[in-house]
């Protein structure tokens, strides 16, 4: 604990203060004499240290009162005693807790939608295994995001409250676009929506003056979300070029072997 100089001096008796002043003055005199004689700085410092040590042995400081934990009394009073209250919660606003629970629901809803896309493209009469693999991995990733937010909620002392999940589409065939392009455009829309929700979550953290939560969202989600939007935008552009025919099969093969044997 730091003590102000005025408070510290007030703890000594007048005689101790006089002795301390004389000692300091004597040390300055010794240092001045040493400087006049041309003694090097290192020798001057050593002489000053020895003089201070000698003075400490000759004159012990008395009347010093050490009061630890004064600054934590207020925080100590805030530690909950009830067993159903979080001990880890500190400066975690109710608005932040509610926003995190909302984002958990967003991530689970998007994961559920991706899982429906996986089931569609995995059918025997659709048989686009690359797209099925891509959407299954996307579903797992969004679920991982939800679990990461749940862990964060618990870390900050909040309560995870899961909300209902909306039933997604089960059919993705489209007369004009075809199923592959239509599903990928839906995927792009979902990623953009998720990014918007994350930005709203970050704004709540900023408004509640919670820099740790804002840093968590930035480092764990926002950069990855921007990269995902860029990648899926490229997939949409490619599928628009190949049309609904044989090119979709080649695109599907590219997704199927993505990441295998050093492939992109």
Automatic annotation (TrEMBL):
Transmembrane segments: none annotated. It is an enzyme of class 1 (oxidoreductase). One of its GO terms (molecular function) is ferroxidase activity. It is found in: Plastid, Chloroplast. GO terms for biological process: intracellular iron ion homeostasis; iron ion transport; response to oxidative stress. Keywords: Chloroplast, Iron, Iron storage, Metal-binding, Oxidoreductase, Plastid, Transit peptide. Belongs to the ferritin family. Oligomer of 24 subunits. There are two types of subunits: L (light) chain and H (heavy) chain. The major chain can be light or heavy, depending on the species and tissue type. The functional molecule forms a roughly spherical shell with a diameter of 12 nm and contains a central cavity into which the insoluble mineral iron core is deposited. PANTHER family: FERRITIN (PTHR11431). Stores iron in a soluble, non-toxic, readily available form. Important for iron homeostasis. Iron is taken up in the ferrous form and deposited as ferric hydroxides after oxidation. Stores iron in a soluble, non-toxic, readily available form. Important for iron homeostasis. Has ferroxidase activity. Iron is taken up in the ferrous form and deposited as ferric hydroxides after oxidation. This is Ferritin. It comes from Apostasia shenzhenica.
């Amino acid at each position: 604990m730091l003590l102000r100089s005025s408070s510290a001096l007030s703890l000594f008796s007048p005689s101790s203060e006089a002795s301390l002043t004389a000692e300091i003055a004597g040390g300055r005199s010794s240092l001045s004499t040493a400087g006049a004689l041309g003694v090097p700085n290192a020798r001057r410092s050593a002489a000053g240290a020895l003089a201070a040590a000698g003075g400490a042995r000759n004159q012990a400081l008395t009347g010093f009162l050490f009061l630890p934990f004064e600054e934590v009394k207020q925080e100590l009073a805030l530690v909950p005693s009830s067993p159903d209250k979080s001990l880890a919660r500190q400066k975690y606003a109710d608005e932040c807790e509610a926003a995190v629970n909302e984002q958990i629901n967003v991530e689970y809803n998007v994961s559920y939608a991706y899982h429906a896309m996986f089931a569609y493209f995995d059918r025997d009469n659709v048989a686009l295994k690359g797209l099925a693999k891509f959407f299954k991995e996307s579903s797992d990733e969004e679920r991982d995001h939800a679990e990461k937010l749940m862990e964060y909620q618990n870390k900050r002392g909040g309560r995870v409250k899961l909300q209902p999940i909306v039933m997604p589409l089960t059919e993705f065939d489209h007369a004009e676009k075809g199923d592959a392009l239509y599903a990928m455009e839906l995927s792009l829309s979902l990623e953009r929506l998720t990014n918007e929700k994350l930005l709203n979550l970050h704004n709540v953290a900023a408004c509640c003056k919670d820099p740790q939560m804002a840093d968590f969202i930035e480092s764990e989600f926002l950069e990855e979300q921007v990269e995902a939007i860029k990648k899926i935008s490229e997939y949409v552009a490619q599928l628009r070029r190949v049309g609904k025919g044989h090119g979709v099969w080649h695109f599907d093969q590219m997704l199927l072997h993505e990441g295998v044997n050093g492939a992109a």
